[in-house]
Amino acid sequence: MSNLYAVLESGFPVDRKTVAIETPERCYTWDDMDRASACLANLLASLALPAGARVAVQVEKSPEALLLYLATLRAGLVYLPLNTAYRESEIGYFLGNAEPDVVVCAPENAAWVGRIARAAGVGHVYTLGDQRTGTLLDAAASFPQTFCTVERKLDDLAVILYTSGTTGRSKGAMLTHGNMASNALTLGQYWGWRSDDVLLHMLPIFHIHGLFVASHGALLAGARMIWLPRLDVNQALHYLPRSTVMMGVPTYYVRLLADARFDREACRNMRLFISGSAPLLMETFNAFRERSGHTILERYGMSETVMLTSNPYHCADGERLGGTVGKPLPGVQLRVVDDAGHALAAGDIGHIQVRGPNVFSGYWRMPEKTREEFTADGWFKTGDVGRYGGASVGRQVPEGYVSIVGRSKDLIISGGYNVYPKEIEGFIDDIPGVAESAVIGVPHPDFGEAVVAVVVPKPHVSLDTQAMLAGLKQNIANFKVPKRIHIAQELPRNTMGKVQKNVLRETYQTL
Ligand code: AMP
Known about the structure:
Distance between the termini: 59 Å
CATH topology of the domain at 1-13 and 29-152: Rossmann fold
Number of strands: 25
Shape: globular
Number of helices: 15
Helix content: 25-40%
Strand content: 25-35%
CATH class of the domain at 1-13 and 29-152: Alpha Beta
Oligomer: single chain
Radius of gyration: 23 Å
Bound molecules: adenosine monophosphate
Strand order of the largest sheet: 2-1-10-9-11-12-13-14-15
CATH architecture of the domain at 1-13 and 29-152: 3-Layer(aba) Sandwich
């Protein structure tokens, strides 16, 4: 059986009366999950949709939203999660592009989403609230509580994930049952998932991190999830002592560290903290180790590929190195190439390309774009720039470890020289009083692009930008030294904690 749901279900515990999901309000046993997802799958099956039909979902996080995802898989349909932040013009684009047969939205958005859905020719619109309200659950309630999961092939489509699309229109990455099952099975082994794990789940579920990496891991292990709508430090501190695994974007770790109550005692049952989706600062990595006694495991992936690399979990696989995203996962091939596509020597910076059973099958209805993003011999161009081994954050990194330097579109070319923002950010972040920084390129009449830094000071610190520039000049080549440093109270971030450099480039475009 190749349906991803069947693969996940193979890990469910024998005793289905135990708790699968716990929220602050209630608990759901594995039996409850099975019955509720069966009702929803029966409802979807009753619509008699063609194979490959899309179910687009824009709802707040709730266990029922996860059940809807599982039901869509069970019914053999294609799940299409949408960021809850999207508004009318964005939803209009996604529905027009993906042409779903079913749309599920939050009850409070029913009027405008319903209007857009009808205009896009969507046949079935339901609502689902985060407190078990809405027309979807009402409609599903009368359906049988058993369902025979629909047979699917490994290369059948399971999910379409729209990329965040900071340049141009968002693209729908098509992920198959095989892509996700292979990645879930690999991570299950590599991160040592156990049936007695308790996952503290605080991530959104419209993205790979929360929906696939976190939820799949717990489901496949038959492990309990503590399900919270978002990171709330008070709630996190309440549940941490009962948890064994936590996944977060770097901001989550920064926020935990900012609370004096977060200490070794709070993590007494934890076995693994995982970070990803955006770079984890060395300062956070070190401070976290000192405060909690735990070494955060940083990993790297993207919508198009699910997880690609991970720092080791088991000592036998090596050390967890801050400032790196670890090694390619078993079964994943990774190479670093120059602009002409030639493989580079260890430590040289270039474009990261990948191949493996986890790599998506292409962009939805964008054959041209798909062709552009794959090499003739089947490597996917990730758009990330990095290196394999070599020096990272001022020290030598052993062979086999990958470090990300940035997105290729964030690379700055100043006076013909390549400037990698992450390198400069590393130097700036080391200056006393700096909380964090972002380095961008802005148009410049002589150099083409000029290097500009946006710096956030630590609380109650006033930074002297001239002294900072003078200090940087002593340490790095002149062409890399920012032409200007702007002080900001915070960096613009999206919901996954990624710094929005396109927003910064717009704000600071004039020198
Ligand atoms: P998304 O498709 O939204 O998950 O974004 C994927 C992108 O996030 C990758 O291409 C990387 O640029 C970035 N990313 C993910 N994990 C990391 C990480 N651990 N360190 C640095 N960047 C990361």
